[in-house]
Design goal:
The complex is a heterodimer of chains A (360) and B (259). Chain A is of the alpha+beta class and 360 residues long. Chain A has six helices and 14 strands. Chain B is an alpha/beta fold and 259 residues long. The chains are: A alpha+beta (360), B alpha/beta (259).
Chain lengths: 360, 259
C-alpha cells in the first residue's frame, strides 16, 4: 500500500486538508485551494530542480611540443615571477605582465603544446591605434597619459587559456508573479497572481575561456573576449615568432569553478527569457547537469601595456584578434571636478527655472 | 406714458425684491456689540458689495454668550435656521464670534465648502486669529472680508486656494529638491563616466559562448498557485474640504477655536 502523501500550502507552508465539497486541497490558514494535479506537478518540478548540479569535466591530458624549439628562449621576470617563452631574437627588455625591465633570458627547457592557437591579427601599430582611439571612452584621462613613447612599449603575448565545452541539461523552477491593477470610485485594487514555473531543457556552450596564467589579470582576460574561434589554428611554433608566449601555471581543475559558475548563470538567464510574461520572476531552484565536458588548452593573442602614473602601474590589454581594449584608466581629479561642476551649474540653472515656475 | 412708467417702477421693485430676497439676513449681526457704529457700517458695506459681486452669502455673527454646546454647532445652527445662504445649496460663509467664551468658528456651506477648502480655512484662521487674540475685532472682521474676496476670486477662476502655494514647508521642499536633484544627477552622470574608465570586469555569464540555436526547451509549465487582492482607499481628489453634518442635516465645512 502506498504511503499517505501530505502536501504543504505553497502560499503559507501550512498543512493542506482535503475539501470534499470542492474536491481540492484546502489550506485552513490562508484559505487557498489547490487542485491535486497542480500539487503533483509542483512536487515533480521541485524534485527535479532541487537536485544538486553535476558538472562532469573530462580530465585534460598534457602534451609536450614535438617540434624543434631550439630557436626559443625562456624569459624570467624577477619582479613578478613570470616565466614566459619567446624566440631568441627578442630583446626581452620589459615584462609584459608587470612592465618591469628586470627580465632575464634563460635556456629554453621545453613547454606544453596547446590544442590550438589564434594567431595575432592586429599588429602593434593597429593595437596602439586601438588603444589611442579608446581614450575617447575615458573622459577624465590625464593628458600626460597619452604619451606616445609609453604606448610604444606595448608587447604581444600569447596568453594560455583553458577552453571549456559542454552540453548541459537543466531543470529550473522560478517563482513568478503577475500583477493586475484596477480601480473603482472608492478603492484601488492590486491583484497578484502567484505561479511556479518549471523549465526543463538543454543548451550547449563552446569555448568558455578561463585564463591559465596566474600572472594575467582574470578580469582583463575575461573582458577581452570574445575571440572568433573559427580562426583558431593548429599550433605551429612559427606563430610565436616576434611574440612572447606564456604557459599555464593554473591547472584546468582550478579553473572549472569559474566555468561552472558562468554556465549556471547563463543557463538560468536563457531559460529565464521564456518567462517574460510575468512582472516578477525569481529563480527558485536550479539543477544543471552534464557529463564529458571537454577541456582544451589554447593560446590567445593579447597586446599588453603597462603605464606608470603617479607611482601606480596601470595595466591594459588589447585583443590581438579584434583590437578590443580593456583596462582601468587613471582619473584626472581636476577634469572630474570640472565636469561635475559644469553639470551642476547646468542642473541648477534648469532647477532654478522650474522651482520659480512652481513657486509662483 | 404714466402706464409705462408705472410698469417700469413695478418691474424694478419686483426685480430688486427678488435680488435682496437672496440675502435676507444682515451681513453683520453684532449682538455682542464688538464694533462701533462706524466700523459696523463700513464692514456691512464691504460685505454687501461682495455678496452682490459673487452671488455668495458672506456674514458675520457675534454674540456675548454661546447659544449652543460648541462654537461649531452654534455657528451651523445660526446659519441653517437663521436663513443664511445663497441659492438652492445655501452657498455661503459665516464668521461666528462668542466674546464671553472667547470662541470663534467659520462655517461654510454649499459652494463655500469648495471655495474655502481646508487649506483656505487654515489661511483665514492664520490671519484672523492674531487680531481676535488682541480683541481687535474690527481688524479681524476686515481681514476676514478681504480674504473672502481673495479666495472667492481664486475659486471663481477655477483654482481654489491651495495651501501648498503658501506654506513654508512647501517652499522648503521645492527649494530642497531644486538643490538636491541637480546634485544627484551630476553625481550619477559623473559616476557613469567614471565607470567607463574601467572596462576590465569579471564576467558573470557565458552568453557569448552559447552555441547559436542550441537551446531546447523540453518542458515549459506555468502552474497557477493562488491570488492575492489588496484593496486601498483612493485619495479623495475633490475640494480638499473636511465636512460634517449639522443638526439640520446640511453639510458644512468649517474651522474654529478659541482666542
Amino acid at each position: 500500500m502506498d504511503a499517505v502523501k501530505s502536501y504543504k500550502c505553497p502560499c503559507c507552508s501550512d498543512a493542506l486538508i482535503f475539501n470534499a465539497d470542492t474536491q481540492m486541497l484546502h489550506c485552513q490558514s490562508c484559505g487557498n485551494e489547490f487542485p491535486f494535479d497542480t500539487l503533483s506537478e509542483l512536487d515533480a518540478g521541485n524534485e527535479g530542480a532541487s537536485k544538486p548540479s553535476k558538472y562532469n569535466w573530462q580530465r585534460y591530458e598534457e602534451r609536450n611540443f614535438d617540434a624543434d624549439l631550439s630557436d626559443f628562449s625562456a624569459f624570467s621576470c624577477s619582479s613578478c615571477g613570470a616565466e614566459i617563452t619567446g624566440d631568441s631574437s627578442l630583446g626581452a627588455a620589459i615584462c609584459p605582465y608587470c612592465g618591469s625591465n628586470a627580465i632575464a633570458k634563460k635556456q629554453f627547457e621545453g613547454s606544453l603544446c596547446p590544442d590550438y592557437i589564434i594567431p595575432f591579427k592586429v599588429d602593434k601599430k593597429a593595437a596602439m591605434k586601438a588603444f589611442e582611439d579608446n581614450f575617447k571612452t575615458a573622459p577624465f584621462l590625464p593628458d600626460e597619459f597619452r604619451d606616445k613613447k609609453r604606448i610604444e612599449q606595448m608587447q604581444g603575448v600569447y596568453v594560455p587559456f583553458w577552453m571549456f565545452d559542454c552540453s548541459c541539461n537543466a531543470q529550473i523552477t522560478y517563482d513568478a508573479q503577475r500583477t493586475t491593477l484596477w480601480s473603482d470610485t472608492n478603492y484601488d485594487y492590486t491583484k497578484t497572481d502567484y505561479f511556479r514555473l518549471i523549465r526543463k531543457g538543454s543548451v550547449d556552450f563552446e569555448n568558455i575561456p578561463a585564463d591559465g596564467s596566474s600572472k594575467a589579470d582574470d578580469a582583463h582576460m575575461e573582458s577581452i573576449g570574445p575571440y572568433d574561434y573559427s580562426e583558431a589554428m593548429e599550433f605551429r611554433p612559427e606563430y610565436l615568432s616576434g611574440y612572447f608566449a606564456d604557459r599555464y601555471d593554473v591547472s584546468s581543475e582550478r579553473c572549472v569553478d569559474r566555468a561552472n559558475e558562468r554556465v549556471k548563470n547563463s543557463t538560468i538567464e536563457v531559460f529565464g527569457d521564456t518567462t517574460d510574461r510575468y512582472s516578477l520572476v525569481i529563480p527558485q531552484s536550479t539543477c544543471v547537469e552534464f557529463s564529458d565536458g571537454k577541456i582544451r588548452y589554447a593560446l590567445l593573442p593579447v597586446w599588453m601595456l603597462n603605464i606608470k602614473y603617479n607611482g601606480q602601474n596601470y595595466h591594459f590589454s588589447v585583443n590581438g584578434q579584434t583590437g578590443k581594449v580593456v583596462g582601468e584608466y587613471p582619473v584626472d581629479e581636476g577634469k572630474k571636478k570640472r565636469y561635475f561642476a559644469k553639470l551642476l551649474a547646468i542642473g541648477y540653472a534648469i532647477s532654478a527655472v522650474v522651482a520659480v515656475l512652481l513657486l509662483l | 406714458m404714466k402706464r409705462v412708467l408705472t410698469f417700469v417702477l413695478l418691474l424694478s421693485l419686483v426685480f430688486s425684491t427678488l435680488c435682496f430676497a437672496q440675502f435676507e439676513n444682515r451681513a453683520v449681526s453684532d449682538n455682542a456689540e464688538l464694533l462701533t457704529s462706524l466700523e459696523y457700517r463700513d464692514v456691512t458695506r464691504k460685505i454687501e458689495a461682495l455678496r452682490e459681486k459673487y452671488d455668495f452669502d458672506i456674514a458675520v455673527y457675534t454674540e456675548y454668550e454661546m447659544g449652543g454646546v460648541s462654537a461649531q454647532s452654534t455657528a451651523d445652527d445660526i446659519y441653517d435656521y437663521g436663513g443664511y445662504g445663497y441659492g438652492e445649496e445655501y452657498d455661503g460663509i459665516m464668521l461666528y464670534i462668542c466674546s464671553e467664551e472667547r470662541q470663534y468658528h467659520i462655517t461654510t456651506c454649499g459652494y463655500g465648502i469648495y471655495a474655502f477648502n481646508d487649506n483656505g480655512l487654515e489661511y483665514l484662521d492664520m490671519n484672523i486669529k492674531p487680531h481676535l487674540k488682541n480683541d481687535d475685532y474690527y481688524s479681524a472682521i476686515t481681514e476676514y472680508v478681504q480674504l473672502c474676496d481673495e479666495l472667492l476670486e481664486m475659486a471663481k477662476n477655477g483654482s481654489p486656494y491651495n495651501q501648498k502655494h503658501r506654506k513654508v514647508s512647501h517652499y522648503i521642499v521645492i527649494i530642497g529638491l531644486a538643490l538636491v536633484i541637480p546634485f544627484i544627477v551630476a553625481k550619477s552622470k559623473t559616476n557613469k563616466k567614471l565607470k567607463a574608465m574601467k572596462t576590465a570586469v569579471i564576467q558573470k555569464y557565458a552568453d557569448n559562448c552559447m552555441k547559436d540555436g542550441s537551446m531546447r526547451l523540453d518542458v515549459s509549465r506555468d502552474l497557477f498557485l493562488y491570488s492575492n487582492v489588496v484593496k486601498t482607499p483612493r485619495a479623495k481628489s475633490g475640494s480638499g474640504s473636511t465636512t460634517h453634518t449639522s443638526s439640520s442635516g446640511r453639510t458644512h465645512g468649517g474651522r474654529g477655536g478659541s482666542f
